[in-house]
Design a protein that fits this description.
By secondary structure, this protein is an alpha/beta fold. The protein is 42% helix and 14% strand. It has a three-stranded parallel β-sheet with strand order 1-2-3, with helices on both faces.
Length: 71
């Protein structure tokens, strides 16, 4: 899970993809950044202006363990 899809966040997405992460979830408040995160390899994006991020992650990954988080 990556909080923020700015320059650092997008590099984290690329690194996670290269490392073989099966799910890459990105949370941000800007639609254009979330679109960029998808292009960089994010499997799921959450716009935290529309939903509560914690609830969205629980719904997206029910019962799954989050092994890494970058903010």
């Amino acid at each position: 899970m990556i909080f923020g899809a700015g320059g650092v966040g997008l590099n984290a997405v690329s690194g996670a993809r290269i490392a073989g992460a099966s799910r890459i979830v990105v949370i941000d408040i800007q639609t254009r950044r979330l679109e960029a995160a998808r292009r960089f390899g994010a499997t799921d994006v959450i716009d935290s202006t529309n939903v509560k991020p914690v609830e969205a992650v629980r719904e997206l990954l029910p019962g799954e363990l989050i092994t890494s988080s970058i903010s």
